[in-house]
Amino acid sequence: MGFTRIHGVLHAEQCALDQLAQQFSTPLYVYSKAQLEQNYTDLSKAFDFIAHQICFAVKSNSNLAVLSVLAKLGAGFDIVTGGELARVLAAGGDASKIVFSGLGKTEADIRQALQVGIACFNVESAAELDRIEKVAAELNCQAPISLRVNPDVDAKTHPYISTGLKENKFGIPSDVVFETYAYAASLPHLKVIGIDCHIGSQLTEVQPFVDALDRVVLMIEQLNTMGIQLQHIDIGGGLGVRYQDETPPTFAEYAQALQPTLSRLGLKVYLEPGRSISANAGVLLTQVDLLKPTSYRNFAIVDAAMNDLIRPSLYAAWMDVQTVKTPAADLAVLQWDIVGAICETGDFLAKQRDLALQAGDYLAVMGAGAYGFVMSSNYNSRGRAAEVMVDGANAHLIRARESIASLWQNEYLLPKE
Ligand code: LLP
């Protein structure tokens, strides 16, 4: 399964990572198809007690091959842009299983989504209701909508990825939920079908999910008394993974904690997981380029950098770094900062890690399948990494390394004077 060490060499399923690094060069994202599939099916099984639809959060990993593997298992998708919608369709995803989240959907995005017949728009403001109403009227159809409510629950995660508090920009504040539902129900080209709530990402405890669900259920009951009957509840994503020593709930624990309330409610359940499906299904492979021990710190300069994986720089995220080959027993273990070659102090992948390193070694940054490649950039005019998906003993290139010439293909010089 996934990533394991076989005879001292880290493997993706049956493929040795050092061989993949040599074959495809580094930096290289490597995904395990089997791990991706297992995560999806395990989560789906945990929710078998109720009618449900898992909508994979495309923002966590949008490679077409990844989306297509999940689509074949029956996954729907949680999208936030017209670009993600186009990707899902290009990957063979089923439009009728798409939920459209995000707080700034453009008219063009909404039109496209209505034309292909998505399952639901998760709406975040009254202004957005007006915009969807306008586009639906133009197309002479009814848009299925749910409101993303903000339950004011502390997800206890990094402030940049916490979304369910009053001070966050997301969701309809709880004090205006009912008037906003009433307004939505009054608009002729909207069909109010659901309620949605996403309180943050990388949650490592189950309690905030339970608290948020309880608050949403109270809202649903109040809506019933107003004559607004819903067909589904969308419980968002956010389930955390283990990067270091976190002990996030398993899929089964997560489902069990929500089961009594969801069963009593009896509505169809939508889920929007990203990280818990994709994170441990991917690694970023990089090669140690130069070693720079100093009297104060030891730096291992590697060929991946913050442009390839920004999580450590942006969120001070701790990601596990392992040598692909178990080092020789006589090689000294030192404390290394694993850094890129970008001209910024913030360019690092890991700090103060006990490793036995030599120039030329391959390293794997674990848990990089979510919010890895998708957040990469061309900073310092670096082409983005290649991506490979392993399926048993076979490795498939699923995104070619970006060529340097392609970086300025959309740039133009000024006309000659
Ligand atoms: N649904 C909505 C409305 C979201 O905003 C998100 C994530 C998800 C679902 C999926 O959440 P997940 O299951 O992946 O936690 N770049 C950050 C994470 C940002 C998450 C944004 N929203 C990181 O690298 O940690």
Automatic annotation (TrEMBL):
One of its GO terms (molecular function) is pyridoxal phosphate binding. The keyword Iron-sulfur does not apply. Pathway: Amino-acid biosynthesis; L-lysine biosynthesis via DAP pathway; L-lysine from DL-2,6-diaminopimelate: step 1/1. Pyridoxal 5'-phosphate binds at residues 238, 272-275, 371. Substrate binds at residues 275, 311, 315, 344, 371. It catalyses: meso-2,6-diaminopimelate + H(+) = L-lysine + CO2. Its EC number is 4.1.1.20. Its cofactor is pyridoxal 5'-phosphate. The active site is at 343 (proton donor). InterPro entries: Ala_racemase/Decarboxylase_C, DAP_deCOOHase_LysA, De-COase2_C, De-COase2_CS, De-COase2_N, De-COase2_pyr-phos_BS, Orn/DAP/Arg_de-COase, PLP-binding_barrel. One of its GO terms (biological process) is lysine biosynthetic process via diaminopimelate. Residues 29-369 form the Orn/DAP/Arg decarboxylase 2 C-terminal domain. Belongs to the Orn/Lys/Arg decarboxylase class-II family. LysA subfamily. Homodimer. Specifically catalyzes the decarboxylation of meso-diaminopimelate (meso-DAP) to L-lysine. This is Diaminopimelate decarboxylase. It comes from Acinetobacter larvae. The lineage of its organism: Bacteria, Pseudomonadati, Pseudomonadota, Gammaproteobacteria, Moraxellales.
